[in-house]
Design goal:
The chain is built from 8 helices and no strands. α1 packs across α6. It has 177 residues and is mainly α. Belongs to the sigma-70 factor family. ECF subfamily. Keywords: DNA-binding, Sigma factor, Transcription, Transcription regulation. One of its GO terms (biological process) is DNA-templated transcription initiation.
């Protein structure tokens, strides 16, 4: 194994789990998340030799992941099945406990349009600044702000009065602000 391969293998082992979690939040399906991460790391491996600043690998990998997700969404390669849609109801049912709240939030997040979902995941899950999110998505900071506002509005509409009072939208799924 070359030094390049060893370094890549080490990076993959350290970061693929976190990227898989981000991918799941983007697409709402664990198998598709695995596919997105696999595609992302395949692209990263092809570019590995050209990457000279390894301190920015996370940002580069995250950007590749989000762009792969958005690109595949545009092509319509995947059709997600959502339990709430199968029931024919756009409202998300009330939940009573923290694990259930996470599931409710994930179900609602899956209904948010892909671009808005990407902004919400990067801003509130990955805790990135508006400027960094804009750079990763290749858009202006104003677009990030408007997409975040629309995405939060969509989530609020889906969760509306069914969310418990102590459950705040705009906080990370793990409770981080």
């Amino acid at each position: 194994m070359t030094d390049r391969d060893a370094a890549f293998t080490e990076y993959f082992a350290a970061r693929s789990g976190a990227m898989r979690g981000t991918a799941y939040l983007l697409c709402g399906d664990w198998q598709r998340a695995e596919d997105l991460v696999q595609t992302t790391f395949a692209k990263l491996y092809l570019a590995w030799r050209r990457i000279s600043r390894h301190e920015v690998l996370d940002a580069y990998t995250r950007q590749t992941l989000v762009r792969t997700f958005v690109s595949e969404g545009r092509r319509g390669w995947f059709r997600l099945e959502r339990v709430a849609e199968q029931a024919g109801d756009d409202r998300i049912a009330e939940s009573t406990g923290l694990p259930e709240e996470r599931l409710v939030l994930l179900a609602a997040l899956a209904k948010v349009p892909p671009r808005q979902r990407a902004v919400l995941v990067l801003r509130y899950w990955e805790d990135l600044a508006v400027e960094e999110t804009a750079r990763l998505l290749g858009c202006s900071t104003g677009t990030v702000k408007s997409q975040a506002a629309r995405g939060l509005q969509t989530l609020r509409g889906l969760l509306d009065t069914t969310a418990p009072d102590d459950f705040e939208i705009g906080r990370g799924i793990d409770g981080r602000a």
